[in-house]
């Protein structure tokens, strides 16, 4: 062998040897990495299970200690919650009110422990908080009450409303995204149970979410086939998946305890661009419950709504089965604690990245960024309500239409909605200057809610909760009955929703008693007497007497950001109140005190009191009383008794004196004015359902003409 050959062979051999060595090393490294990944995966699997069990154990312990609550449902929902919050949900733990956080809207308020347990793992609650579930002064009330700083986005309890508010928030998010860009693509998650699915409102929420293609809305249905009194198959045979598919949803059914299936469903839902997603998670009521002898005790109706110790399950054995310390059941498991500590750090870092991205956007889009900040601040632009001119003798709904047209041009962050009555409730004044929201196009500002008053009101609550947008909803006053549960939640949650209610009295006329509100004003005004948790009247109800007062009422409504406002408006034209000076609008601004004198003389013989269109009737009566009976008459227009009662006693007395005869006129129940008129006064109102006939005929038949009212006053004055 030549030296050259020898050299070539040895070189080749050593190269070969080195290559084999390298390949071998790489393979080893790869194997090691795979092993590590596998180990981590197994660890994760283990920790996921432990975290979900920890949530279950906490929920059980909270209910047991409180001696009341609903343990079974949270035990089923724990797996979804943990996977959602650990792998998908984006928020900034150091800045809970960050406007671009994902939102979680709980429908099944009775499952509050599920949220408290989850947010306890995330550090939003202390051990004492969860241990004091449902107790006086605790921050863990029986049903969740909005508390954004701790992650509670909405108050819930009345089933069906929570997820509908989520739909509202999803609409708000799309509205803002259409104006400021895709970078704000946060998600709205909903959590619903059998009860919410059965509530009628889910029809409206499901229809609208599908119709508008709310791809940013992802709802988990905790489908455990058990409800409070019975298994669900005793009350329903519907195919829920088909129902939601028919509404245009993306629907997937999974094992709600299988973490990989939850993960995949959430991944797919997050990639949706066209449709909202319903993840039907088949879960087990009371997952993990065992009896005293250690056998499983799951899926029972009795686990729904009482401490598990009061059922066939054994409390201590169940805690042990879930891996909890039976002596200190409110502990977070060590490994779960460690996992969540890291998770919170990761979430914070991820949010910081997103915030940096947003900061770059802000630099490149200065004007838009300023506008966005303005929207989110909740401030109003400079508005000049006096500049809106009204023709003489308008119905207050028509005056409202003029204001809405002005607002359409001057307030860019309003969504006005009507339950298929925009041309009657006159929100078309707004609609004509914008266009309706549509699937794929949220550049408009009008929501055609369809005939679904409760859904619409609830959506408005959700829009308000999301922030950045002022929601306005409209329908006939008589149908405020259909909205009442949502109005109540607007009040409890202190939301600045604006309700526009037109066709405010029997003067609806020919439509008859079904359409003629009588007791509605009394019902709504009860909320003015009911204080919210901030100690303020929970609602502001305004029934303006003419066009100028309607402008003032809108001003009051917009400036009232922390409680809902209702504008109660007439169908029929109303004679405007004559200005006593130069500007009727300036004088009508006194309505901001709740009530004021629209006609004032010294030492009146009688003070006539009304609101809305009855004020004009009082003017007609006063004319007769003065010209034919030589009486001196004052007239007070009280747009809101609630606001009036907040004024000084001296002011109240200057409008409604204690020692002068008082006569009230209302097209609603007399109780509307009895508080103002007092025991010595008289109120003439309606004490029966209406009838179908032209409005002027009803005025005459029911005694609401100037002449008939003047006779009533004279009769009354004989008695004082
Ligand atoms: C509007 C409304 N009606 C009734 C109730 C009372 N309620 C609370 S939970 C519940 C049963 C709901 O069953 P489901 O949603 O299946 O909850 P789970 O049994 O899974 O906990 C009922 C009727 C309510 N909270 N809201």
TrEMBL record:
- Residue intervals of the Transketolase-like pyrimidine-binding domain: 394-576
Q: Which cofactor does it need?
A: Ca(2+); thiamine diphosphate; Mg(2+); Co(2+)
What's a single GO MF annotation on this record?
metal ion binding
Enzyme Commission designation: 2.2.1.1
Q: Which SUPFAM superfamilies match?
A: Thiamin diphosphate-binding fold (THDP-binding) (SSF52518), TK C-terminal domain-like (SSF52922)
Query: Which GO BP annotation is one of this protein's?
Result: pentose-phosphate shunt
Keyword Transferase in the entry? The reply is: yes
**Protein keywords:** Calcium, Magnesium, Membrane, Metal-binding, Thiamine pyrophosphate, Transferase, Transmembrane, Transmembrane helix
| Group of enzyme by EC | transferase
What InterPro entries does the record tag this protein with? THDP-binding, Transketo_C/PFOR_II, Transketolase-like_C_2, Transketolase-like_Pyr-bd, Transketolase_BS, Transketolase_fam, Transketolase_N
Q: Which reaction(s) does the protein catalyse, per the Swiss-Prot or TrEMBL entry?
A: D-sedoheptulose 7-phosphate + D-glyceraldehyde 3-phosphate = aldehydo-D-ribose 5-phosphate + D-xylulose 5-phosphate
Keyword Calcium on entry = yes
Q: Which GO terms describe its cellular component?
A: cytosol
Instruction: Give TM segment ranges.
Output: 6-30
Give one Pfam family, short name only.
Transket_pyr
- Report quaternary structure and partners: Homodimer.
The entry assigns this protein to a family as follows: Belongs to the transketolase family.
Q: What is this protein called?
A: transketolase
Q: What organism does the record attribute this protein to? A: Algibacter lectus
The organism's taxonomy opens as: Bacteria, Pseudomonadati, Bacteroidota, Flavobacteriia, Flavobacteriales
């Amino acid at each position: 062998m030549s030296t050259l050959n020898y050299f070539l062979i040895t070189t080749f051999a050593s190269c070969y040897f080195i290559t084999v060595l390298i390949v071998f090393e790489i393979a080893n490294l790869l194997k090691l990495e795979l092993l590590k990944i596998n180990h981590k995966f197994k660890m994760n699997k283990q920790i996921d299970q432990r975290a979900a069990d920890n949530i279950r154990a906490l929920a059980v312990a909270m209910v047991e200690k409180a001696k009341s609550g609903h343990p079974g449902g949270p035990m089923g929902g724990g797996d979804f919650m943990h996977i959602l919050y650990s792998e998908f949900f984006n928020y900034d733990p150091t800045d809970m009110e960050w406007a671009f956080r994902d939102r979680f809207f709980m429908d099944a308020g009775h499952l509050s422990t599920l949220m408290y347990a989850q947010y306890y793992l995330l550090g939003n609650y202390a051990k004492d908080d969860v241990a004091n579930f449902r107790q006086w002064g605790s921050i863990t009330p029986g049903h969740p009450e909005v508390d954004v700083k701790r992650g509670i986005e909405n108050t819930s309890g009345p089933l069906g409303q929570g997820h509908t508010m989520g739909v509202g928030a999803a609409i708000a998010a799309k509205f803002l995204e259409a104006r400021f860009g895709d970078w704000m693509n946060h998600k709205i998650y909903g959590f619903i149970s059998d009860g919410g699915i059965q509530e009628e409102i889910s029809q409206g929420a499901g229809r609208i979410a599908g119709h508008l293609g709310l791809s940013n809305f992802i709802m988990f249905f905790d489908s455990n086939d058990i409800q409070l009194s019975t298994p669900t198959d005793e009350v329903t045979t519907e195919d829920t998946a088909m129902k939601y598919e028919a509404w245009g949803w993306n629907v997937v059914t999974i094992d709600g305890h299988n973490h990989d299936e939850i993960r995949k469903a959430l991944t797919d839902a997050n990639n949706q661009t066209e449709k909202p997603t319903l993840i039907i998670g088949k879960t087990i009521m009371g997952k993990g419950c065992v009896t005293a002898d250690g056998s499983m005790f799951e899926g029972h109706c009795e686990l729904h709504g009482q401490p598990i110790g009061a059922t066939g399950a054994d409390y201590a054995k169940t805690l042990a089965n879930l891996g909890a310390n039976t002596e200190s059941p409110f502990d977070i498991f060590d490994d779960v604690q460690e996992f969540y500590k890291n998770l919170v750090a990761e979430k914070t870092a991820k949010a910081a990245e997103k915030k940096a991205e947003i900061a770059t956007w802000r630099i490149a889009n200065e004007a838009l960024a300023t506008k966005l900040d303005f929207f989110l601040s909740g401030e109003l632009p400079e508005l000049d309500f006096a500049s809106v001119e009204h023709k003489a003798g308008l119905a207050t709904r028509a005056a409202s239409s003029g204001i809405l047209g002005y607002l359409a041009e001057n307030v860019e962050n309003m969504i006005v909605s009507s339950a298929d009555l925009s041309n009657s409730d006159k929100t078309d004044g707004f609609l004509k200057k914008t266009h309706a929201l549509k699937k794929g196009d949220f550049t408009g500002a009008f929501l055609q809610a369809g005939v679904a008053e409760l859904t619409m009101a609830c959506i408005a609550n959700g829009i308000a909760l999301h922030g950045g947008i002022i929601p306005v909803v409209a329908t006939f006053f008589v149908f405020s009955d259909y909205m009442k549960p949502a109005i109540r939640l607007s009040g409890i949650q202190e939301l600045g929703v604006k309700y526009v209610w037109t066709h405010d009295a029997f003067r609806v006329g020919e439509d008859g008693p079904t359409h003629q509100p009588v007791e509605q004003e009394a019902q709504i005004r009860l909320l003015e007497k009911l204080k919210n948790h901030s100690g303020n009247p929970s609602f502001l109800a305004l029934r303006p007497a003419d066009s100028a007062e309607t402008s003032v009422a809108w001003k009051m409504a917009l400036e009232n950001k922390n409680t809902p406002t209702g504008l109660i408006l007439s169908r029929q034209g109303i004679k405007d109140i004559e200005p006593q000076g130069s500007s009727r609008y300036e004088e009508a601004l006194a309505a901001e005190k709740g009530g004021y004198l629209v006609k004032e003389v010294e030492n009146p013989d009688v003070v006539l009191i009304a609101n809305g269109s009855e004020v004009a009737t009082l003017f007609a009566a006063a004319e007769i009383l003065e010209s034919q009976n030589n009486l001196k008459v004052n007239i007070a227009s009280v747009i809101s008794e609630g606001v009036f009662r907040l004024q000084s006693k001296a002011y109240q007395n200057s409008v409604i004196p204690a020692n002068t005869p008082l006569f009230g006129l209302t097209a609603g129940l007399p109780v509307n004015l009895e508080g103002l008129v007092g025991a010595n006064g008289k109120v003439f109102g309606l004490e029966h359902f209406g009838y179908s006939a032209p409005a002027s005929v009803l005025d005459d038949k029911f005694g609401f003409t100037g002449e008939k009212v003047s006779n009533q006053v004279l009769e009354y004055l004989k008695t004082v």
